[in-house]
Amino acid sequence: MRPLRLAVMLEQALEVGGGFQQPLNDVLWLRDWATKSGNEVVVYSPYPQTQRILKEFGIEARLLKFSVLDHAFLFLKYCGPFDLVQIGLKLKSPFERALVRDGIDVVHFTSTSKRHLLLYQLPFVITIFDGCHRDAPEFPEVRTFGEFERREILFGLGSKKAVLVVVNAPELVEDLSRRYAVERSRMVQIPFSPSIYVASSADDSKASDEAVLGKYRLERDYLFYPAQFWLHKNHVTLLAALARLRDQGRIERLVLCGSDRGERDKIEASIADYGLADQVSILGFVESSELGALYRGAAALVMPSYFGPTNLPPLEAWAVGTPVIYPQAFKTQAGDAAILFDYDDPASLADAILNLRTEGTRERLREAGEQRLQQLARETELGRDEFAAQMARLKHRLALIPR
């Protein structure tokens, strides 16, 4: 039987943060899977920068951008009746024609991509990170200007049409089954893994860590929150907690990093309103290679995000021994490896930060974080084994279909 030729789409830009780092982990694992199973992986990205990054890992990715016709196909697909025209004329988008020319059998989207709407012939695997447009529709980034409706189309049609749906948490299996009637047998759960850059930074010297901290003029023992500047990231609750602690005589320093998604000005205005300019440092987007040092320099990761049920930063913090302060809503991911708080209550977060400073707490959290990471690694291995088994079954079935 000939090898299965799997197209792996790495569509998120580096600036997206975890939305880039987790698919990068997937690409590296899929490369190893292909070698062991006798199959083939071809990696595609619309970004030359991603090509350069993958080349550092020995992967030659192909550049595949959206054409004007692809955008036209997408627009008509969203409109609905175009399906009848496409079926009648057997039209294929330029995107799909390029994949067919490359001999691709299956397309694996490592994120919830709109490009699955362009596929007429090729079967696909889709990855769904969350269902936050349903969990928290009050946030404009998942509601306004048709964003909610767009996501409903992508999630609903994508999860039902995909030959396999990859999720990172059991809650998503439940949500997709309930919301979109997706068969559980077509879902495989693979938890997040720490970024390869952070996980491999354990070998960095103390001097290299100090160089990173010196670059940003940081002293150790700050609170750290790496997140893009979106409203749902909930920076303001964290600032309110710091102001509350200051009023109680407790000064905590905070370091923020991440790309601006349109809300940084509001965060800076809130910092000024709370009088926290001397306590908060905003680094902007930082290099992936610097994240390990920034985590290690922190007293704790503090992540008040409203979106879950899983996030990448807690795993990265656990990977380098940094304690985690995390929302109670995401306890399933954290287990007992984090101090939990109510993300709608600055007082609850302030209490969690005070708890961090009690004797023995940080040591306990480091040990619990290491154990939690080991448990998730075992679950990831089981999920990847299931993925491999699903691909073996799909390979057999596709061999029965004339090319």
UniProtKB/TrEMBL annotation:
This is Mannosyltransferase. One of its GO terms (molecular function) is glycosyltransferase activity. The keyword DNA-binding does not apply. CDD domains: GT4_MtfB-like. Residues 219-371 form the Glycosyl transferase family domain. Keywords: Glycosyltransferase, Transferase. The keyword Glycosyltransferase applies. The lineage of its organism: Bacteria, Pseudomonadati, Pseudomonadota, Alphaproteobacteria, Hyphomicrobiales. It comes from Bradyrhizobium cosmicum.
